[in-house]
Amino acid sequence: MKPFVLLATRAEDVPADEEYALFLRYTGLDERDLVRVRLEAGPMPHLDLDGLSGIFVGGGPFNASDPAETKSPVQRRVEQEFDALLDEVVARDFPFLGACYGVGTLGAHQGAVIDRRHGEPISVVPVTKTRAGASDPLLDGMPTTFDAFVGHKEAISQLPGSATLLASSPACPVQMFRVGANVYATQFHPELDVEGITTRIHAYAGHGYFGADELELTLAAVRRAAVSHPSRMLRTFVERYAR
After folding, report:
1. What is the pLDDT of residues 135-159, one digit of tens each?
2. Where is the signal peptide (predicted)?
3. What is the secondary structure of 181-195 as a DSSP string?
4. CB-CB contact of 17 with 25 (8 Å)
5. Closest among 62, 190, 45, 56 to 127, alpha carbons compared
6. Which of 52, 73, 86, 143 is the most exposed place for a label (fewest CB within 10 A)?
7. Domain ranges for the chain
8. Count of H helices and E strands in the chain?
9. Which long-range contacts (CB under 8 A, 24 or more apart) does 16-23 make?
10. Would residue 100 be called left, alpha or beta, if left means φ above 0 and alpha means ψ between -120 and 50 degrees?
11. Which of 22, 29, 28 is nearest to 227 (CA)?
12. Could you tell me which residues are beta bridge partners of residue 7?
């Protein structure tokens, strides 16, 4: 089998390593078949799409809607690298699944309006499939409405005509979309479980996702409902695109 690639941008080792472990667990891949590239540590290597089965993108600290003058050199480099990669990915309709930061990368590439009107605090929210989502193969077998972990400062408020809306939540109109037949992005986190999001809550305390006195409330919010369905998407993606 040709390997998959996980493009990651987390600078903190503990959540970065746990993110990789969670992708391994829920895709069913081993380290040989899911190659991790930490983009915050250095430039994106050349990715020969002919030698890959597909691309995953994990979550990250960057916000596409931040003013250009406030973006770090690393963020500007990463955004330029994703833009170039997505030129080829979209043109070839190559299998791609971006989780959370995938909305910023693919959405920005396609000209979506990304702003802070539909941010969601770290929590569990009900995500509902659209009519297009109900027939999408990546969401096959999932309930019409399922609980998912979220936590984001920005979101897409308007999709471009090139995108198909697949799922929404009450506070965030674009939870998942597709470009072409095989290029996907989710605002929610399909890779997370309770332990994984707990690690991130502790790692990113003080990063503006919740107030200094809201740690316990945030931890309680991610335990209020069982989250079991979104991770199925990762195994489905691998089964659909492994070659």
Report:
1. 999 999 999 999 999 999 899 999 9
2. none
3. TTEEEESSBTT--HH
4. no
5. 190
6. 73
7. 4-241
8. 7, 11
9. 18/196, 18/199, 19/58, 19/59, 19/191, 19/196, 20/58, 22/191, 22/192, 22/193, 22/196, 23/56, 23/58, 23/191, 23/234
10. left
11. 22
12. 37, 57
CATH code of the domain made up of 4-241: 3.40.50.880
Sequence-ordered strand ranges (E) for 155-224: 155-158, 163-169, 172-179, 183-186
Strands 183-186 and 96-99, by their bridges, are parallel
**Torsional class of 208: left (φ above 0), alpha (ψ -120 to 50), beta (otherwise):** left
* Closest by Cα among 93, 19, 160 to 7: 19
Q: Which residue has the tokens 């929610």?
A: 188
Q: So what's the pLDDT on residue 185?
A: 97
pTM value is: 0.95
Instruction: Tell me the pLDDT band of 59, cut-offs 50, 70 and 90.
Output: confident
pLDDT of 200 above 90: no
Residue 27, H or E segment = helix 13-27
Residues 188, 230 contacting (CB under 8 angstroms) = yes
